[in-house]
Specification:
The protein is α/β, with parallel strands linked by helices. It is built from nine helices and 14 strands. A seven-stranded parallel sheet has the order 3-2-1-4-5-7-6, with helices on both faces. Strands 9-10-8-11-14-13-12 form a seven-stranded mixed sheet. The chain starts with 5 loop residues before the first strand and ends in a 13-residue tail after the last helix.
Length: about 350
């Protein structure tokens, strides 16, 4: 296959995820970065904003309004959910393959969108076609996918640690509590007093308790993989770091812990290039930063009657841009590590 033979576009290229996508796509051996869309940087040269080489550096950012006419084989949408829900059908109608990094197509049930995302879904028929882009848990349906819905960052870190344990018989009737600690880039690149340095530094803040939009996505993902999933109580916490997520998942035991839980976790990911199973106290954020890796670990607290799993990812790579490219690789029939194998922490 020739190098850089498939044109790709990024719509929403000036956000944190869009920037990460731009950097990764510019070095992808089979995808050629053909167009970038951003109102913020419209008509600026990409090389003045991102350290790029070659033809990608000479690209000019185009207005978002032109995005629906993107002339690309693969279009990555780093746009808000409502924007993606409007854009994706138009791009698919043009024959493009779409990888959407918002939540616009993550949930199967269109009736769930008003409650969790705050809008009625404008293209409910596409929800059944969308393929969930978490290859480690949903690889079987990705080959040839026209519409890939990229998982949420919290959902990625939590589902990867939780799904094999539920499949092994834990938490089926409930009793799953999760705390996810996220760097500030997870809130997006927007000017807001709440996310300014003075407000965020030296503080920790829980938010959206009981109503975070990733909760139904996690439950749906685990149920697809494991056959069922009990309700999850999720507490997201904003922490004063730039990027990265550390999640702890506490699962109440009903009786003695099943034998071989750690083995089940290791077996689930034995052949996965991006998931490593470690001792739980060796799972930390700094080791996965700027990589497409997820590190997971497990401890049994028999005295308290719980199992505790822990996971770490970079929210902008495995939680967003890197995973989008991994899923696009799977959809196009390339090794999933293509363009991602040189990323190191």
């Amino acid at each position: 296959m020739s190098m850089h033979s498939h044109p790709a576009a990024v719509i929403g290229a000036s956000g944190y995820t869009g920037l990460e996508l731009t950097r990764l796509l510019a070095r992808h051996p089979h995808l050629r970065l053909a167009s970038l869309y951003s109102d913020r940087w419209s008509d600026e040269v990409a090389g003045s904003r991102v350290p790029l080489d070659g033809p990608a550096a000479a690209l000019r950012y185009r207005p978002l309004a032109e995005g629906e006419r993107a002339d690309a084989e693969v279009v990555f949408l780093a746009t808000p959910a409502e924007v993606s829900a409007d854009l994706a059908p138009k791009l698919l109608a043009k024959g493009a393959r779409v990888v959407d990094l918002s939540g616009a197509f993550r949930l199967e049930d269109p009736a769930a969108y008003p409650a969790w995302y705050g809008f009625a879904h404008p293209a409910p028929a596409l929800l059944a076609e969308a393929r969930y882009g978490l290859p480690e848990l949903a690889r079987g349906k990705l080959a040839g996918a026209r519409l890939v819905t990229n998982p949420g960052c919290y959902a990625t870190s939590i589902a990867l640690a939780l799904a094999p344990l539920v499949k092994a018989g834990l938490g089926l009737s409930g009793g799953i509590a999760v705390t996810g600690l996220s760097g500030v880039s997870g809130a997006g690149r927007k000017a807001s007093e709440d996310y300014s340095f003075v407000e965020v530094a030296d503080d920790l803040r829980a938010y959206r308790l009981g109503k975070h939009q990733h909760v139904p996505e996690i439950e749906q993902t685990v149920a697809r993989y494991a056959g069922a999933c009990g309700p999850i109580s999720f507490t997201p916490v904003l922490v004063p770091i730039r990027r990265g997520i550390l999640a702890t998942i506490t699962i109440r035991l009903e009786g003695a812990p099943p034998a071989g839980l750690a083995d089940a976790l290791r077996a689930a990911y034995a052949d996965e290039p991006f998931v490593r199973v470690l001792a739980p106290d060796k799972v930390n954020v700094k080791d996965v930063l700027h990589t497409n890796r997820c590190h997971v670990g497990l401890a049994v607290d028999a005295r308290a009657g719980v199992v505790v799993a822990v996971s770490a990812i970079d929210n902008l790579v495995k939680g967003a841009a890197g995973q989008a490219i991994q899923a696009a690789n799977a959809a196009l029939g390339w090794p999933e590590t293509t363009g991602l194998d040189l990323l190191g922490g």
